[in-house]
Amino acid sequence: MAKLRWWSADRDERYWLELTDRDDIGADLRAPLHDKSGEQSWRYNLFKEATIGDIVFHYDSNAQAITSVSAVASGPIDEEVRWAARGSYARERNAQPELVPGYRMQLDQHRDLGTPVKLAALRSAGPQLQRIEQALRRRYNGPLYLPFEIANRPLRLLQGYAFKLPAEVVSMFSGMADAAAAIADDLAKSRSELLGQLVRQIEAAAHRFRIGELQSLRSKLHGRRTKVRTIFSQESVQGEYAFHSGGRTELQFNIGFDVDDLGAPIIRAGVAFSFETSRTLPTIDALLPRVATFNDHILDVSESVPGLLMWSYHPRRGRTPVSSARPIDAAEVSSGSFVFLGWRWPPSEASADGCLQAFDQLLPLYEAVEGSAGRDGSATISGERTGLLLDNGKEVSELRWRTASIAERTLNVSLRHNELQKRLRELERQRGGHPTIEARIGSRSIDVVSVRADGLWFFEIKTSRSPRLCIREAIGQLLEYAFWPGSSPPVRMVVVGSNALDEDASAYLRALNDSLPVRLDYEHISIDDWDHNRN
């Protein structure tokens, strides 16, 4: 089904109606994937477009009333469901429940309405419901998926299971509106408490990361002192999201609750531009040169920091699909819009260290954007002329790869990159080297630096399936790491990929080494086994 619906761009349109006679209302949502003809039907599958936190009202056909309400707690999970068709035709042929391919969605916060909204009350409100339907038809070109049939007879509910319910309908009945508001308040309170806990953990661990010095860096970049010493402040933690103290008018470090493409809850951490005007940001003009600098550097950042995800939200057009890092389009820069760049995790996998590592990796971009603000825009992503720092480096989780699905191992760039780093580190230790993951050089970092008897070896990891593309993407970074003023020159530069060199790529590598002042190698490390070789 098409994803652009009449409610897509309106955050207030988050209500649905389950029409059922089941005896465990509120336990979950479940329906078959196909009707009796074998075709997909929106009257079964529409709930799959609901997102975490959306509100579902339950119409009990036995009671002929909307009797209770729940919150969506998960995306759809395909599994067999026990189902019997309903309606006059099904009754005529005495349809019996049977196991069929279907889907299930978890619910939470189930509660009864104080006063059920009976069919008689819906019929009394028929003229108002008809006006709401007509207004929607004038505004939107397409199906509405409403549950009511309103004609020259008393209102009745359509046959089916899953329907959309306009917010204006909910507001007509105080019991429905109050129950929905109570659920929303409880969900917001729960997420606010979890986010507050994560913020406290971040602040406690921040001293171990460069981002812990953010406020000192802001003072240096902007030439003014700040009394705040922490990353966040009480004012910058806003319920389900938070941005760094002072970030309202800057490229902001941002964390918060979100949902993924399937509606499952996630935690995001990264940087963002918020174009919502306020007392501290009366117009978005101050952010425009920052966006331009962001666009100047984002491709450089995407090469050095793998797995970055990006999306934007527009108050009328809704969210863009999640993509890899890219320049911000002019159409995304308008009052009320929001643009995010970073990473996301299921809440159970989000950690203070993960968020802080994400902030550290994006700190060079922040320095470039804020360093150029109000000046000539000449700040660079390369940072200060400081030599190579072989400190503790970065720790890579072993559990994440072991528990990942085949799809994640195949398609998740960050996951593949981290696994290659981990395996390369083990190989270097076996070869007698002393490897550091994410060794810092200025404000950037090299994927792996190994200290060997003959000197420093720089490794740049790329996740492309094509060795040619790996070499093309890595060579510029390796040359900059090796020869930028203030660097520590290596004795060897190595591109690391998960596929072996072919004949043409080998010839290309030999030709490059005829001209390069430092030898360039390519190393193949299979993520599926431990076979490896150097060409």
Q: Can you characterise this structure?
A:
This protein is an alpha+beta fold. Strand 23 (519-525) and strand 24 form a beta hairpin. It has helices at residues 42-45, 88-92, 119-124, 126-139, 167-172, 174-205, 214-222, 288-304, 352-372, 399-403, 406-411, 413-430, 467-483, 503-513, and strands spanning 15-20, 28-32, 55-60, 65-72, 77-83, 98-118, 148-151, 153-157, 162-165, 237-238, 241-243, 252-259, 265-274, 309-314, 318-319, 323-324, 338-345, 388-389, 434-441, 444-452, 455-461, 492-497, 519-525, 532-534. It has 14 helices and 24 strands. Helix 6 (174-205) crosses helix 9 (352-372) and helix 8 crosses helix 9 (352-372). It starts with 14 loop residues before the first strand and ends with a strand.
Blueprint (SSEs and pairs):
Blueprint: E1 15-20, E2 28-32, H1 42-45, E3 55-60, E4 65-72, E5 77-83, H2 88-92, E6 98-118, H3 119-124, H4 126-139, E7 148-151, E8 153-157, E9 162-165, H5 167-172, H6 174-205, H7 214-222, E10 237-238, E11 241-243, E12 252-259, E13 265-274, H8 288-304, E14 309-314, E15 318-319, E16 323-324, E17 338-345, H9 352-372, E18 388-389, H10 399-403, H11 406-411, H12 413-430, E19 434-441, E20 444-452, E21 455-461, H13 467-483, E22 492-497, H14 503-513, E23 519-525, E24 532-534
Parallel strand pairs: 1-3, 21-22, 22-23
Antiparallel strand pairs: 1-9, 2-6, 3-4, 4-6, 5-6, 7-8, 10-11, 11-12, 12-13, 13-17, 14-15, 14-16, 14-17, 18-19, 19-20, 20-21, 23-24
Helix pairs in contact: 6-9, 8-9
